[in-house]
Amino acid sequence: MSAIDRYWREGFPHVEGWVHGGLLAYLKLVDQIQADAGIAGHGAEIGVFHGKFFIALASLLPPDGKMTALDVFDDQSKNIDGAGEGSLEKIKSNVAAYGRCDIDHVYIATDSTALTALDRVNLVRDRGPFRLFSVDGCHTVEHTLSDLRTAEDCLSSGGVIILDDFMHPHWPGVTQAASLFCAGVPRVAPFLYAHHKLFMVGVGWHAHFVDACRNTLAHHDSMKMTTMFHSKVVSIYP
C-alpha cells in the first residue's frame, strides 16, 4: 500500500479540515504524471490549518523529501478572513500521529503576503524547489494573488500549484484572485479542476499534463474538457 493510500485510510478521517475525499485519485494522478516525466522537487503549503492536506502532499514525496508549512499559526490577528484558525501544536501532533517519519517537516510562522523577493529566494534555496505547492491561506483577493505569485516563483520545472476553493461560492476572493493572476500572463496555466481545487503547471508542461489527465480520465462520467483563462482544462464536476 502506498503512503498516501495508507494516510487516506488511517489518518485522513481523523484530521480536522475541509478536503474532499475524492481528491485522492487526482493527487495520485498528478504524482504519477510527474514521476513518469522525471519531475523532481519538494512540497509546500501556504495555509495548513491542522494538516489534513499538508500530510497528504508529504506522503507523495520520496524518502528524505522536504515538506514546508507557511502559516500564521497561532497569531490569528493576521488571519483576517477567518479561513481556518490554525494551531502549530495541533498540526505537529497530527504529523507525528499520521505523517511519515522519513520526511523533513518544517513549520514557518509568517504572514505570506509579507514575503519579500529575497525571502522567496531563500525559501527555494533552503527548502525547494517545489513540485507540489498548495495555496490555501487567507482567501481574500490580495492574499490569494500574493500567494499564487509566491508559489509560481518557487516551482521546479514541471511543478504543480494546487489552488484551494476555486469557484467556491463562500470564498469569491479566490476565484477573483485567480482571474487577476491569469490575466497577468503568468508562467503557469491551469490543466485540471476537481472538487474546488485548481491545478496549474508551467506553460511548457501544460499540454503534457492536459493530455495525460484527459487520457486517464476519458471514461469518467463527470469529466468535461473546457477552457479556463485561455487554457485547456480537464474539469471534473461535481
TrEMBL record:
Q: Which BP terms does GO give this entry?
A: methylation
Pfam families documented for this protein:
Methyltransf_24
User: Does this UniProt record's set of keywords contain Lipid biosynthesis?
Assistant: no
Alphabetical keyword list: Methyltransferase, Transferase
Q: What are this entry's molecular-function GO terms? A: methyltransferase activity
UniProt name for this protein: Class I SAM-dependent methyltransferase
What organism is the protein native to? Neoroseomonas terrae
Query: Where is the organism placed in the taxonomic lineage, from the top?
Result: Bacteria, Pseudomonadati, Pseudomonadota, Alphaproteobacteria, Acetobacterales
